[in-house]
Design goal:
The protein is about 75% helix and about 0% strand. By secondary structure, the protein is mainly alpha-helical. It has one domain. The radius of gyration is 19 Å and the shape is globular.
């Protein structure tokens, strides 16, 4: 058991190091110098002002909370297909609970860094410059959704949520002028998704659909929470865009 834990621990350390090196490289550092400027531009800005950090972190938290509220709302309308969500996501072979959480964190970080770099950076940013922000966000969100269509949990309601998440992440990247707030929000969302909805390490969703219970109090609270979170998220993204524009004008 000790040997298994040791090897797993080193595997996670290596994965974390590779992610850090990848993030350093795609943000414009390292060889080849011939395309470092293009990498830096596509990554958007790797630095943020204090106001951008404050609003960016707020927007990131709201994003994760909004997506999870949307998923709860969905599975009060239709039954939660736990078997489909757990398919291929069994991490209980990992020998200890702390290492399972490390696996969740590394998986969430990998998805957040790689997907934000690919979709909101290398795909959306050039399209924005050629065809405008709306087209850039819609195209990147479409392909972001297509990527997830192979998943066993990709029922219609979840596809709509994934597309909506892509749109919000696209807006965050545009509003902040950076991939960093979107990566943080994506990471927080995925930690919750992997730990709760996918692997069940953080608990299991047991609420029944309103077809069986009626529109009870918890469902009404979910509806109100989702509406409020989404409205505040849009307002916060607008404020993030404003402080980012002020910083750009200053420089």
């Amino acid at each position: 058991m000790y040997g298994s834990c040791c090897w797993t621990d080193w595997a996670f350390r290596l994965a974390g190091s590779v992610l850090a090196l990848y993030l350093w490289w795609v943000s414009g550092n390292g060889p080849p110098r011939s395309n470092s400027a293009a990498r830096r531009r596509t990554f958007r800005s790797p630095t943020l002002s204090a106001a951008q950090w404050a609003w960016g972190l707020f927007v990131a938290f709201l994003f994760a909370a909004t997506i999870h509220a949307a998923i709860v709302f969905l599975f009060r309308l239709v039954p939660f297909p736990a078997e489909s969500f757990r398919h291929g996501c069994d991490i209980f072979f990992i020998p200890s609970l702390p290492l399972r959480w490390v696996a969740i964190v590394i998986s969430a970080a990998s998805a957040a860094i790689c997907e934000e770099t690919g979709f909101r950076g290398y795909m959306q940013q050039p399209i924005e410059q050629c065809l405008g922000i709306v087209t850039g966000i819609l195209i990147s969100s479409f392909f972001f959704t297509v990527l997830h269509l192979t998943k066993s949990w990709a029922l219609l309601g979840m596809i709509l949520i994934v597309f909506g998440a892509g749109v919000l992440l696209g807006l965050i990247a545009w509003a902040s002028g950076s991939l960093i707030p979107g990566m943080i929000g994506h990471f927080m969302m995925d930690v919750g998704l992997f730990a709760y909805w996918w692997a069940g390490v953080g608990g299991t969703f047991t609420a029944r659909p309103i077809a069986a219970t009626g529109p009870d109090r918890s469902f009404l609270v979910t509806c109100v929470a989702l509406a409020i979170l989404f409205a505040i998220e849009i307002l916060a993204i607008s404020q993030l865009r404003r402080v980012s524009s002020i910083r750009t004008a200053t420089f």
